[in-house]
Amino acid sequence: MAGDPDFEYDVSEDDIKQVLSKFGVPKRDREKTMLLRVIRLITTDKFYEVKEDISGIPDYGFRNHDVATALEAQREQTRRQSGLKKLEQHGLVKRHEPKPQSSKSHWYVAREFRTALEEAPFDDSLPEPNPPEKTVTKLDLPYHDKKVKIGPGNHEQLAAECLENVVPQITEDPAIIHSDTGPGAERDKVKDGHQHLEIADSEYRFRAYPDILILDEYDHTLYFFESVISTNPFHETRVKEMLEPFRQARLNNITRSSPEFDFVFITLFPDVKTYRDHMLDLANNTYFWISNHPEKIRGHKKQELTDDVNSKVDLDLSR
């Protein structure tokens, strides 16, 4: 579109019109310049990277001000007619308003429209996750006495980044309880359909288990990591599955002499796009880390957290 700022839009104007058509948006609205400008903007990764970071508004949320600022070529018109209410009428965006006139009110792209984008009949407008720059086959970690084998896939390489760069910075005395990062990793511990893992001198039976499980022996915190290239972040059901062995252990009275654990769940994403694909699925009070924005581990709905142990995870990792 003539006069647009220098954004590298993820979806072309023609492609977005196709998706809007399949989503049921009438032709008269598909031709509206402002609606097209806004919908292309809010489905572009760069918009979320440069928008203002406001406490209490999630990374995937945005305000009218963010749209107006990004489309500064027609800023005054954008303020008066952002197109967001029209997009809301068509189910393309939704609004979260904690209370009337709240400063935390924000918009976000509706899950149904994100699905329509993913299923659109074009394959070159939405970027694929960036492949790792190098393939790691083994890791020599300062906190582990054996080299850790790493498979060649993107999933395993993302887990390798976590073991090498994230774990040392958020733990004091880490021990690898489980690492499903190589071919046939730890399959010898699978019995009767469960993964049997020893943690602090007690055995726990996991029917579902994470890609990486780390015990910080300094303060008895368990860190669960899930590497997500396409599916299976830490959603509410998966978190409950991870905690089930500890619930059963308490019921069976097998851990009376073992310390209580604090639990931290961190989903690993390769890039912002993959995070945005799964952001509405993440369980409350969990965390996520993005490989191409490695300087921070961010909390999902972290404002609801009260546990001091968990709050230490919201770290700046750039040092």
UniProtKB/TrEMBL annotation:
It comes from the Archaea. Residues 76-105 are annotated as: Disordered. Keywords: Endonuclease, Hydrolase, Nuclease. Pfam families: BsuBI_PstI_RE. Residues 76-99 have a biased composition (Basic and acidic residues). Residues 145-297 form the BsuBI/PstI restriction endonuclease domain. One of its GO terms (biological process) is DNA restriction-modification system. The lineage of its organism: Archaea, Methanobacteriati, Methanobacteriota, Stenosarchaea group, Halobacteria. One of its GO terms (molecular function) is DNA binding. This is BsuBI/PstI restriction endonuclease.
